[in-house]
Amino acid sequence: MALKVLVGCKRVIDYAVKIRIKPDKLGVVTEGVKHSMNPFDEIAVEEAMRMKERKLVNEIIVVSCGPAQAMETIRTALAMGADRGIHVEIPVDKMDTFQPLHVSKVLAKLAEKEKVDIVMLGKLAIDDDSNQTAQMTASLLDWPQGVFASKIDKTDAGLEIIREVDGGLETIRTTLPAVLSADLRLNEPRYATLPNIMKAKKKKVEKMTPADLGVDMAPRIQIVSVEDPPVREAGQTVADVDDLVAKLKEKGFSSA
Amino acid sequence: MRGVPQLLSRAKHIRVGFSASEPVLAIQAGILQPDKFTQTFVQIRGLKSSKVISQAPLTAVDIADSGKQLKQELEAIVGPGNVSSGESVVLQHGQDEGPHPGKSPDIVVFPSSTEEVSEVCKICTRHNVPIIPYGTGTGLEGGISAVEGGVCVNVSKNMNKILQIHQEDFSAVVQPGISREMLNQEVRADGLWFPVDPGADASVCGMCATGASGTNAVRYGTMKENCLNLEVVLADGRIIHTAGIGSRPKKSSAGYNLTSLFLGSEGTLGIITSATVCLHAIPESVAAAVVGFPTVQNAVDTVVMTLQCSVPMARMELLDEVQMKACNEYSGLSYPETPHLFLEFHGSESEVESQTETVRDIAADNEGGEFQWAVQQEDRTKLWTARHRAYYADIALRPGCRSLTTDVCVPVSALPDLVTATKADIAEHGLIGPMVGHVGDGNFHTMLLFDPADPEEFRKCKEVANKMARSAIALGGTCTGEHGVGQGKMALLEEQFGKDGIDVMRKIKGALDPQQLMNPGKIFSRK
């Protein structure tokens, strides 16, 4: 009854980096900038590992779509304990137009090919904040989805998932196979230790292209422009309360 | 430049450089009382009175001009945007996180390279103006307070790169703007970490300057054991590398151990512009445990026996019953209000398991209570919540209060007696003083709470703190285990080292900083 899990990992600009907009205003600077695994994907890998430690899962396959450097992300996941990897190679110049729908199609195809029971993703990637891939993958596969998961338990019939929603927590039950996405409070990911990093170097990573999976790469969304938020203006000192009230009225904050 | 009268009233003296090599004093008879002023100046600056020259009265403009010239020269080096004498800027740069009110410098500069720092020092030397290095301002002993005014050199704002990471050699080279959490974040992916953890997210170079330590010292050492090399700019602008230029071997017998000299020198010998520090492998497995004891003696006996069994403990923290009460109230926990040990074990899975077993048995032999332990990251975090939030729990005991945090270190066997005596003293003075100790090192802190508006209470806290430090020295320990001497413990230092010991320190300082410009008023007095 042990399950097979496919975990998606994305290589994104590290959360601590100060983002700079490219001169052509169509994207952000990625050259020479520190990248790391999307934090929500780390949580996804960690959850898969914990399920493996509880003997619910017997194989974890990690997949990442991207250029050559995506291999680093795959190796990190392998160092956390995933069993093998799949690198779906996307040329660097095609990365700007490689969008959540394409990722979903790739993951759906791989889920069927590898006959997995669970597709585990992060709830969103911190570079585009799309929060679409898990949902679209579930739709393409016609599988149930448990997104924004903050707790996942196995039941006889499938899974019981506690989800974080605006109003609080929602408990749902799904059958298997299913698509899940990890929210912040699902777990605290482990650090990759040196012995595991060394072991990871020997684990198998398969390479393929979207074409191999029959996925077309034509973009559905066009980025029109990317801009900085407006520069913060200097404050204005006001002389007294009357002055303050007058200024508020002037700026339309007060009608009285 | 701020108004001249304020400048004169705050600084006890003025340095006005008229010649390139010799500081010369000009007295303006109308603004100051020459005799008292001369005396004070000569005494502080160590100048012979023959060097004091009375000239035709200076106008306020003349004095302001020399300050303006200093500012212009600094701007020429670091850029006008990187020199400030704005009120909020200087205020921030004179006050650290300790309870002592700090004095603001006159000017703050933000250099962007070691070369700029060197030029800044040359200018300050020429103008005979004090130099105060500034990292993150997270110190606790007033180390950055500009007691004689001067130029604060903030080396963390613009010099914030990790210059090198050597994964296989387990070392990294960082600039002052890199804090320990930033370094950890960077090397995490390589399975490495920087284990010196003083609590605050301090600048790594700043930690070198104060000889910082933390909860992991019992296994991984303090800053002194984790620093291979320092790049230092001296007062006269010369740049040296304490272990050799670009050197980073694990050990060396070459020359004097200058690295050791500058570690813990608290900015009084030079400005650290980069540090080569040791990294360690992230442990494969980590377990945390908490166990309570009827008395501090029981807890310390457990610690001593554990160390005697060569259990390679990663963290051993003692929290007394006052601290446990505070933690219970603050974090909504329900620990028994008795002394507790908070423990952490590092190693492979089997090692951690066997270490935990050993310590559990030792604790039981010493009247230990329930032994709670956890392996999962979140459970460990929850178990250690009490220890992590200790400081805030203390402040919450008396909202609005501040804490005078003491820091003594004694041989472990002397700890129970010192703790008992200190507790009695705290009770006698009617103070609240929860205790947290890095008991594996014999180092403990009391958070003596005081109302900032009540100078009498602060005085009592100082009295208890001084008494504790003196007892520590008498028991074969030190008046400061981690925080440094700064201003607050200068008298205690003499007690610990004796006149001759301090004199050697003075001579070394005199050799490296003849004009006494580097962070004056810290560690020991001029005479």
Describe the model.
The complex is a heterodimer of chains A (256) and B (527). Chain A has 256 residues and is α/β, with parallel strands linked by helices. Chain A is 26% helix and 27% strand. Chain A has six helices and eleven strands. Chain A has helices at 39-53, 70-80, 100-114, 133-141, 194-200, 241-250, and strands at 3-8, 11-13, 35-37, 57-66, 84-89, 118-122, 145-154, 158-165, 168-175, 178-182, 205-208. A nine-stranded mixed beta sheet of chain A has the order 9-8-7-10-6-1-4-5-11, sandwiched between helices. In chain A, strands 2-3 form a two-stranded antiparallel sheet. In chain A, β4, α2 (70-80) and β5 form a beta-alpha-beta unit. In chain A, α2 packs across α5. Chain A is globular. The termini of chain A are far apart. In chain B, α3 runs antiparallel to α5 (114-127). The relative contact order of chain B is 0.10. In chain B, the strands form four sheets. In chain B, strands 12, 13, 14, 15, 16, 17, 18 and 19 form an eight-stranded antiparallel beta sheet that branches. In chain B, strands 5-6-10-8-9 form a five-stranded antiparallel beta sheet. In chain B, strands 1-2-4-3 form a four-stranded mixed beta sheet, sandwiched between helices. Chain B is globular, with a radius of gyration of 25 Å. The longest helix of chain B is centred in the C-terminal third of the chain and has 23 residues, at 490-512. By secondary structure, chain B is α+β, with helices and mostly antiparallel strands. Chain B contains 18 helices and 19 strands. The A-B interface holds A 16, 36, 76, 79, 187-197 and B 182, 185, 188-193, 281-284, 377-378, 381.
